[in-house]
Write a structure and sequence with these properties.
The protein is built from 3 helices and 11 strands, in the order H-H-E-E-H-E-E-E-E-E-E-E-E-E. The chain has 169 residues and is α+β, with helices and mostly antiparallel strands. The longest helix has 12 residues, at 56-67.
């Protein structure tokens, strides 16, 4: 069905249809359809996760990343900063768990609430002790990676969703 739609609409961009679900099996991905789509950069690094067919906000997020627009809160007050965007856990032997602390800071004037945290792999999750971040405050967070089936060089993406956002010109 999808192949037909892509041909019918003359879609000229790369699309991989994994009919045998090999990618999900190898990478231990969740059955959650909302995280089965990825926006990749030219080096195949994951920039965003989410199914734009299932969520209009993900469509807007993908468009904003592609066009280079800013993503801010609806109130234009919630600005979230993460102390370390790239966390290198080094070499992690199979069946070993590795943790790394980082901070999530609310630079805005309103309290924000973390709605959801999604990982591109079951092997990684984020632990936060509070889902509310007061204005000008920060919370500690920890990324936890369990090398239960992954070997070799591995990149994973964590997305933190908070309150509502909109796109600014």
């Amino acid at each position: 069905m999808m192949s037909y739609i892509l041909k019918r609409d003359s879609y000229d961009y790369p699309v991989h249809l994994d009919k045998e679900n090999v990618f999900s099996i190898i990478n231990g991905l969740s059955d959650n359809m909302s995280i089965h789509s990825f926006l990749l950069d030219k080096y195949n690094k994951v920039l965003a996760i989410g199914n734009p067919v299932l969520n209009n906000k993900i469509i807007s997020l993908y468009k904003s990343i592609i066009s280079g627009e800013k993503v801010v809160s609806v109130s234009n007050k919630a600005i979230v900063k993460v102390t370390n965007h790239n966390i290198d856990l080094g070499s992690v032997p199979l069946w070993v768990e590795r943790n790394k602390q980082f901070q999530i800071r609310n630079e805005g004037n309103d309290t924000i609430c973390i709605r959801n945290i999604l990982s591109s792999c079951h092997c990684t999750d984020i632990i936060v002790h509070s889902k509310k971040i007061p204005p000008k405050a920060q919370i500690d967070a920890m990324v936890r990676f369990s090398a239960d089936s992954i070997s070799g060089i591995f990149n994973n993406t964590i997305q933190i969703f908070y309150d509502d956002f909109e796109l600014l010109p």
